[in-house]
Each structure stands twice: as structure tokens, then as C-alpha cells.
Design goal:
539 residues, eight-stranded antiparallel β-sheet, five-stranded antiparallel β-sheet, globular
């Protein structure tokens, strides 16, 4: 199958171009190497600087473009300490950006100083700590490539290759290997954070997984409490907590040697409400049966893309894209059985494209979402499902998705569970450890298109999906709350959240009070804040 065909069916999935350059360039002379190693000092880019415009638009969601007094582009922890300290002493509001993929305006809203972490992007093995160090500006593809080619290991992180580690790990981090290996934060060994004390002094602190560490609570808060809450992360160390010894090749999970990738497709033409209900019900019930840790389907990861009906002669259709460890016994038979189970009784019949077998890293790189394709204006709303959608919820989805539109509108149901759910809710700040699916409601548009209608559509879809619980996914029943790496300020708005349950419960469950205590200890001046940051406890 051609890349073009797969890309069309996957609704925007694209080949991520560019080869790794390590080892491909001639060695620099010693003098040049020394000069390059020094790098620039603390870079300050104000509004009159030609670089300012590039930094303003360096973000995925073009709805939000920060306009601070100046940006700091930092290259070391020491520079971050200085940048934060200078801003605090000057009384400036400071925010932080790593990959620029935040779904809400947490970086730009009211910011006078933005610390940009894009140049802190190294990935390496730290022999002193016996763990892999990842700087916050490193993209997921940076990390996957370096870990895989260097040591044959990886992290169970996301598929969007341009996302940076800085925000991804903080919110929990999940992806195609999470059903096998858990969340990214389940491998967080230590974290380096620049914090500000009550006197306004900025300093760097290292917090570790070791419960005897006096800074352990700061480590715990960074295992799922999102970004912009406690300080500026300048480095992560990652290691399997069950690993023994010091051989780097044994300290993180090894990815499958090869992946099977497959795509099934159903056209909207002839898709009745009853058939749509059967399709989504089949998909959810399959995950109810096959999401336990150790399941023979633990390596299967799929995304059911319920794409909205398009205007015009071709109304488009619904796509199920998935991958599976090719080395599992009868892997292709299992993959085909999955497609058959989801498509059972559904009319019109599905089209299943030929299954591809590819080396793991090649497959991951090929299916990573490119920033060029994804940069636009968009709104995302998330939820966890502990059980399948009810028929009433499926009917609500059909009613919204079945209205033709010229702009992209979609609902994704993403495989989850497995090893993720073996960790107790209080062991990390990621409280939700009982779900089998993640749900994403998404609408997007470009400059000059009707953004107001797109916003209204996705808000009404999400509200109607969870009408029985006040328009939001209140934990309990078949719902498990929402994912903080997909933040949604509507969850804090009584117009859209009529449940009486605070947004903090949706995202943090029973862990919020503990997070507030960490906030009071490590950010007592509330330097690091945004519309959905952890609030200081009331006196």
C-alpha cells in the first residue's frame, strides 16, 4: 500500500521526514568542537528582534500566539535559574514552553516572560544516576531514535513525534506501547526542577522516586500533574523501577522487533444509526474483553476515528487504524480477528487494507504526526472510558458526526488499559488507572474559516456525550474523568460543566489535595500558574 493511501485513510497521519544525523557528519576540528560546545549565553529576544516573530508562531495550536515582553531561549539549568530569578525579581509573570503543543493558552495568557526550552534537547545515558536523561526540549522522535539506535530500548510514549518531552511526561504520557508497558511516568526515576521559594529565590532541585528522598513529594507531583504548576523542569531521568544492575540496554523496555500495521474503513454512505451503534459498541466491547494486563492482545493499539460526514459527493468515512507486535504468535491472525470483531454485523461492509510488516522504529517514524500537517486552529476535549460508550452516547455521537461539514470534525476512541491499570491510583499523580479507552473530540480550522462554529460543534458533542453527568466525564460508571495533557478550560466553566463536580476531580481524582500540599511547599508564591494550574490551598 502506498504512503499516500495510508495517509488519506488515517486522516492526517504522515511520514516524518529526515534521517538521524548522528554519525553522518564529518568530525569537526578540535577548535570548532570546543567553540560549538560553549553555545550562546542566556538568549533574550524582545519584540524588536527579528527572531521574535518566529518564536511567537512556534506552536502547534495557532489559536494561541504568545506575545510576551520577551522570550528567553535557554540551553542549561543555570540559565533557567537566572531567567526565572530575573523575572521574579522584576515582578514579571513567567511561563514555560517546550514543544509548543499545549491545547489551551497556558503559555501566552498574561505572560510577560516566556522561557522557551527548545534548545535543551539532549538525550543520553547518565552513568552517575544509572538512568537515561532526557531534556525537556527533546521531541519524542529524538528520544525514540537515540534510545533505540543507541541501546535498543524505548519509552511507552506518544505517536506524535513533534511533541516534546517537557509537557508530555509531566501529564503522564501514553502511546502505542502503554498497554504492554504502562505510562511514561511509570519509568520516571528522577526530575530536575527550577523552583522559587517564599523569599523569591530561584534554585534547581533534584527529586527522585526514592521515598526516603526529602524531595520525593516533588517527584510524585511530576508523575501526572501536568505542566506549569510547580517549577520549570530542566531534566528527566528515566529507568524501569524493576530493573537491576547498570547495563543501559536492560534499564528501559525493549520495543517489538517489528510491527504489523493495518487499516479498516467504513464509508458513511449507507451507514445507518443502528449500524453506527453496532460498530462503536463492537469496538468498546472488544476492549472490555481484551484490556487486562497480560492479555494476548496487550500489544495491539488501535484508534477508531469516527470522522464527521463531509459535504459534497464523497461524504468520507470511518477509519480503524492499528498496530501490533509482529512477533506475537499468530499476530496477523489476531489482528484480522480484531477487525472482524469490530466489523461484525456492520453495514456497509468494511474494507481492510493489506497488513504491513515493518521494523519498529521505521513504523513509528512513518506514522508519527508531522507538525506541518497538524499546525492549525483546533479545540480538543478528552475523557477516559472504563467501559464502552452506552447506546445513548453512541446515538449522540451519530447525531453530531452525521451532520455534513466542510471542516474536519472527529471523535477518536484510543486503545488504553493493560499494564497502565496495574499501578495504584495514589502511587503517581496520574489517578485514573481503571480505563480501557481514551476519547478525543476534535474540531479544527484554518485562518479565515468559521472557527466559532467549530468550537460550538465540539463543545456540544462533548456536552451531549456526557449529558447524564452534567456535560462532563465525571469519574464513575463508564467514565474515568479527563486527561490533563489534553486540558480543556470548559471543564472549569459552569456553562459547560453543570455536574457540580470540580474540574480538579475530573483530572486528578482523589490526588488533588496532596498536589495542593506539594504546591504550597514548592511554589508558595504561585509563580507558576495558568487557567488550570494547581491552586494553593486556602489558609
Amino acid at each position: 500500500m502506498s504512503d499516500v493511501t495510508r495517509r488519506r485513510l488515517l486522516g492526517g497521519t504522515a511520514v516524518l521526514g529526515g534521517a538521524a544525523t548522528a554519525g553522518l557528519l564529518p568530525a569537526l576540528p578540535a577548535a570548532a568542537t570546543t567553540a560549538a560546545a560553549k553555545g550562546p549565553g542566556l538568549v533574550r529576544v524582545g519584540k524588536s528582534d527579528p527572531r521574535y516573530a518566529d518564536l511567537v508562531v512556534r506552536g502547534m495550536n495557532q489559536r494561541f500566539r504568545p506575545q510576551p515582553e520577551y522570550f528567553h531561549v535557554v540551553t542549561s539549568t543555570e540559565q533557567v535559574v537566572k531567567a526565572v530569578g530575573d523575572a521574579v525579581r522584576a515582578g514579571k509573570r513567567v511561563t514555560v514552553r517546550s514543544g509548543g503543543h499545549c491545547y489551551e493558552n497556558f503559555v501566552g495568557d498574561g505572560a510577560q516572560v516566556v522561557i522557551d526550552m527548545c534548545e535543551m534537547n539532549k538525550v543520553y545515558f547518565d552513568e552517575r544516576r544509572g538512568a537515561f536523561a532526557v531534556e525537556p526540549g527533546a521531541t519524542l522522535m529524538d528520544a525514540y531514535r537515540t534510545l533505540h539506535l543507541g541501546w535498543g530500548v524505548t519509552l511507552p510514549g506518544g505517536q506524535c513525534g513533534t511533541v516534546a518531552a517537557g509537557g508530555h511526561i509531566l501529564g503522564g504520557g501514553y502511546g502505542a506501547l502503554s498497554r504492554m508497558y504502562g505510562l511514561t511516568v511509570d519509568y520516571l526515576h528522577a526530575v530536575e526542577v527550577v523552583v522559587v521559594d517564599r523569599a523569591g529565590r530561584a534554585r534547581a532541585v533534584v527529586a527522585t522516586r526514592d521515598p526516603r528522598d526529602p524531595n520525593h513529594d516533588l517527584w510524585w507531583a511530576h508523575t501526572g500533574a501536568g505542566g506549569g504548576n510547580f517549577g520549570v523542569v530542566t531534566r528527566y531521568w528515566l529507568r524501569d523501577p524493576k530493573a537491576k544492575g547498570g547495563d543501559p540496554a536492560t534499564l528501559l523496555p525493549r520495543p517489538p522487533a517489528a510491527l504489523l500495521t493495518g487499516v479498516a474503513y467504513w464509508p458513511w454512505q449507507g451507514m445507518t444509526k443502528e449500524s453506527f451503534r453496532r460498530l462503536v459498541r463492537n469496538h468498546g466491547e472488544w476492549h472490555e474483553r481484551n484490556s487486562d494486563p497480560g492479555s494476548p492482545y496487550a500489544s495491539l493499539f488501535g484508534v477508531l476515528m469516527l470522522n464527521g460526514k463531509s459535504e459534497g459527493a464523497d461524504p468520507g468515512g470511518i477509519t480503524l487504524a492499528c498496530q501490533m507486535d509482529a512477533t506475537v504468535p499468530d499476530a496477523e491472525k489476531k489482528l484480522q480477528a480484531f477487525f472482524a470483531a469490530v466489523g461484525e454485523g456492520v453495514k456497509p461492509d468494511m474494507t481492510v487494507l493489506p497488513v504491513d510488516r515493518q521494523p519498529w522504529y521505521h513504523a513509528v517514524r512513518s506514522f508519527a504526526l508531522s507538525e506541518a500537517d497538524q499546525s492549525s486552529h483546533f479545540k480538543v476535549k478528552s475523557s477516559y472510558l472504563r467501559k464502552r460508550f452506552t447506546d445513548r452516547q453512541i446515538d449522540a455521537a451519530y447525531d453530531h458526526l452525521g451532520k455534513p461539514s466542510s471542516l474536519p470534525r472527529t471523535l477518536w476512541a484510543v486503545s488504553y488499559g493493560g499494564q497502565v491499570n496495574t499501578v495504584p491510583p495514589a502511587a503517581t499523580a496520574t489517578a485514573e488507572r481503571a480505563s480501557i479507552l481514551k476519547v478525543i473530540c476534535l474540531s479544527s480550522w484554518q485562518d479565515g474559516q468559521d472557527g466559532a462554529a467549530q468550537l460550538q460543534w465540539v463543545r456540544e458533542l462533548h456536552r451531549d456525550l456526557y449529558a447524564a453527568t452534567g456535560g462532563v466525564p465525571v469519574p464513575g460508571g463508564n467514565c474515568g474523568g479527563a486527561y490533563i495533557n489534553y486540558p480543556d478550560i470548559d471543564h472549569a466553566d459552569p456553562k459547560w460543566n453543570t455536574s457540580g463536580v470540580p474540574w480538579t476531580t475530573l483530572y486528578y481524582g482523589g490526588n488533588y489535595a496532596r498536589l495542593q500540599k506539594v504546591k504550597a511547599r514548592w511554589d508558595p508564591r504561585d509563580v507558576f500558574r495558568h487557567a488550570m494550574s494547581i491552586r494553593l490551598p486556602k489558609p
